[in-house]
Amino acid sequence: xxxxxxxxxxxxxxxxxxxxxxxxxxxxxxxxxxxxxxxxxxxxxxxxxxxxxxxxxxxxxxxxxxxxxxxxxxxxxxxxxxxxxxxxxxxxxxxxxxxxxxxxxxxxxxxxxxxxxxxxxxxxxxxxxxxxxxxxxxxxxxxxxxxxxxxxxxxxxxxxxxxxxxxxxxxxxxxxxxxxxxxxxxxxxxxxxxxxxxxxxxxxxxxxxxxxxxxxxxxxxxxxxxxxxxxxxxxxxxxxxxxxxxxxxxxxxxxxxxxxxxxxxxxxxxxxxxxxxxxxxxxxxxxxxxxxxxxxxxxxxxxxxxxxxxxxxxxxxxxxxxxxxxxx
Length: 328
Description:
This protein is mostly helical. It has nine helices and three strands. The model is unreliable at 1-18 (pLDDT under 50).
């Protein structure tokens, strides 16, 4: 069994404790956001019905999907905190990534619906009570903006929360557009402004959603995290005492802010007991310089045959299954 360089340290224990506390705080913010958005839905449904506003009714439906997004995001945070076990040896960190991908993809689908609806409403304007729409949209904007600010700080380091934050920003911008269009419609009667503004906002936010889709797919494809330079990691490992070379290097992300590494390290011929000191030093180096919190290494001696830094999994499997020559 190859030695692991993921043993607990005071620094890592402190980081884990802060992470757990952060997840709990994020969960509370998401629950508050869920309750607040359910209130928005109720206000917009009642106001849209009495103001004859398809825009408000549509926004209420939009907010209903946001409640679903927030519930799924809260569930992902809850799942990611579960410990690993025999069937999920890496735990549930990927739940967060799957949720972020679903949320962003859902918003892209909704963008298509908003654009189609906007086109229809430009061709066939719907008369609405402008001042009433503006008043209700102001309430929705305040609630959505408050929710977005609650999630903003947590969105920087969590792709799942970032996708939920994006939905809240989109809602706030849509509500702001409805406020402006409500006043303009009340003054000028220009009904086409509302769908036109909604389409522009949807396109802008869709660009951010597409970035989340690409980042989520990169993680699911086991790509190297954006903030880690694999070549720089290799050079730091090669610079360690007694290290001659490294090969079969893999760096990937389990979730937002949770990076992992595995590799083979070619060292001088030495007792196995001496590698324990090496693993402690390498662990600190990887965590402090690159934020890699889960790493496993396999040691080889200089007598081993040279291998490439980044392995070809297919050829590696063929080597393992290739029959050996019979002894003479």
